[in-house]
Amino acid sequence: MTAARIPNVLTVAGSDPSGGAGIQADLKTFSARRCYGMAAITALTAQNTRGVAGVHLVPPAFVQQQLAAIFADVRVDAVKIGMIATADIALAVADALEAQSPVPTVLDPVMIAKGGAALLHDDAIDAVRARLVPRATVITPNLPEAARLLDVPVATTREEMVAQANALLALGPAAVLLKGGHLEGGECPDCLVTAQAVHWFESPRVQTTHTHGTGCTLAAAITAELAHGAALPEAIHASKTYVTAAITAAHQLTVGHGHGPTHHFHALWQD
Fold it and tell me: Taking the model in full, what pTM does it have?
């Protein structure tokens, strides 16, 4: 009997030296979700659980060279795009991906770090909107990111979430997952909008400060599930369940003094 093929999954994102977000979170998530992870780095950050102290951008041509090296040698079954930082990097990534056969692509439009630091230049928004959003299988903005992409106020109700998700869908992605964690209340509802339907994914709000990298982790988990062949609603359900459990188990970690990371390997590191 032939064993199932292990998917190869690529993240294009920035580095977090404290390990909770960015490519470090993505690679941990890919491993936890039974995929072989690869990474093309767009930026080096100096950050920890308390915030971002500095950002060193990778030259766009070298970002493109990293991607060319991977695609020239390795089968890529799905791609996750995270921190892009600048318009030139966005264009370099778009050019590199457009030269390849389409694969499931999850775009997490990282704009602001948990501590408030800007991670996407203003001039990059148009490039992300024009070149990366239309090629995405799904984009996964939170409410402030969606508002910035659309240049509208942040949604405060479920009705506004659906309206903004539909406006984002009109930009060209196959689907939009608008994350409602910024809504007030005890629930964290996420809204998936496609051309065919609206789906809601519910989960209770976990009262914790261990939320560093949750957006990266959710998008990476969805990417892994799509690489395994899951349909998008099932991929999101499995990923949201995984992230909620990772947040719930994060108290087992003792990492930093600010917004701590989630426990990516909560299901594997059992006593």
Answer: 0.94
